[in-house]
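queue> pop job 88
queue> type: inverse folding (structure -> sequence)
queue> payload:
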């Protein structure tokens, strides 16, 4: 009688990467709220909104507004381009490298804000958000850590339908819900911080939060470099 193949152990529950990825999304929401207030209705990570603003500005012949929207979008694309190149070069260290590059870009933006550089001050943050979207976590079947809020909401609805039909676990839609919720909470915190502490201090705080994230990634990069499934 042939021996049955050995059973493989189920994936181990690991809430660490989940918390890390949702915190990265919170930072994206945080800077989006700051960018919206400082850039006159433009976002630093939510490019769907900026693309809509670009189309409206072009239709209304608001050339300055169209140029600003196009510049922010181009900055984000540049960040995604650079992030992808860095990911290919750095291998398993890609998350650490990209996060520290983001910290440098946030520090540059904070300095430009302190020097009252105007519209251009926050463009390094948009580049950083493009970088951040080039690395992400797949947790419970959900792509977490990006700033694509529409995709998160669609994924949540899709995962709920799959859960109802028994083709997905509850953790999948919950992961998408956590991603969306962390973005909204980040935007709330960013708006409150901006109103109470001003733009320079708020950007400094965002830079400090990102530095904490980068340091965590430095010491836990092996766990964070691979997809993790949270068991229900």
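queue> result:
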């Amino acid at each position: 009688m042939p021996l049955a193949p050995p059973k493989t152990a189920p994936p181990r529950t690991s809430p660490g990467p989940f918390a890390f990825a949702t915190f990265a999304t919170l930072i994206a929401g945080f800077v989006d709220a700051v960018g919206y207030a400082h850039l006159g209705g433009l976002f630093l990570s939510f490019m769907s909104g900026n693309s809509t603003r670009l189309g409206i500005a072009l239709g209304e012949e608001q050339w300055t507004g169209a140029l600003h929207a196009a510049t922010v979008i181009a900055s984000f694309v540049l960040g995604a381009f650079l992030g992808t190149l860095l990911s290919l070069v750095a291998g398993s260290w890609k998350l650490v490298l990209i996060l520290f590059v983001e910290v440098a870009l946030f520090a540059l933006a904070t300095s430009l804000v302190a020097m009252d550089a105007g519209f251009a001050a926050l463009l390094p943050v948009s580049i950083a958000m493009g970088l951040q979207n080039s690395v992400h976590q797949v947790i419970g079947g959900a792509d977490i850590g990006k700033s694509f809020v529409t995709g998160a909401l669609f994924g949540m609805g899709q995962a709920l339908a799959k859960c109802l039909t028994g083709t997905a676990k509850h953790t999948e839609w919950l992961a998408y819900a956590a991603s969306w919720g962390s973005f909204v909470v980040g935007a709330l915190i960013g708006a409150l911080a901006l109103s109470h502490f001003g733009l320079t201090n708020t950007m400094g705080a965002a830079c400090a939060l990102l530095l904490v994230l980068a340091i965590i990634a430095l010491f836990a990069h092996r766990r964070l470099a691979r997809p993790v499934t949270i068991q229900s």
